[in-house]
Design a protein that fits this description.
alpha+beta; 5-stranded antiparallel sheet; 4 helices; elongated; 153 residues
């Protein structure tokens, strides 16, 4: 056999090795992060819920979801351990790191539609959204037939 025929197989095996190696590193980092959790730290679950760690056990953690509300979760369901600043910014809405000079983005699009003209100055008339065509108007113009009359010949 020639080395040229074996080259695609060697490249394929090398790529598979590199992919599994990086995935294994990510899994080990996540396991280490979960094992280093301490009571009182803020976390985010894989479902997107933010909570505070109350107790850490071998395979489970006790989380305080809201004041006085506790829930038991598996350690594998912890997506990220957050530092105190990030947890407080997300959960409590404290934004100490905002600059005074940075522009404030409004929550709605009202600033995009505002004009310098007063609202009374616009010449927009109300739009009739009813469907009326020429045939419908012609039908309304004809007198209605009574029970004895018909169009039959």
């Amino acid at each position: 056999m020639n080395i040229v025929t074996l080259l695609p197989f060697i490249v394929l095996i090398g790529a598979m090795f590199l992919m599994t190696r990086s995935a294994k590193k990510k899994q080990q980092a996540a396991a280490q992060m979960r094992n280093e959790m301490q009571p009182g730290t803020g976390i985010r679950t894989i479902g997107g819920m933010y909570a505070t760690v109350k107790e850490v056990h071998d395979e489970a953690v006790l989380l305080e979801v809201a004041p006085g509300v506790h829930a038991v979760y598996a350690k594998n369901s912890i997506g990220a351990v957050l530092d105190d600043d990030e947890y407080n910014r997300i959960v409590h809405g404290t934004e100490d790191d905002l600059d005074e000079e940075s522009p404030v983005v409004p929550d709605d699009a009202s600033s995009l539609t505002e004009t310098d003209e007063p609202a009374d100055a616009s010449d927009d008339s109300p739009i009739d959204l009813g469907k009326k065509d020429a045939a419908a108007e012609a039908d309304e113009a004809k007198p209605k037939k009574t029970d004895g009359e018909s169009d039959a010949k």
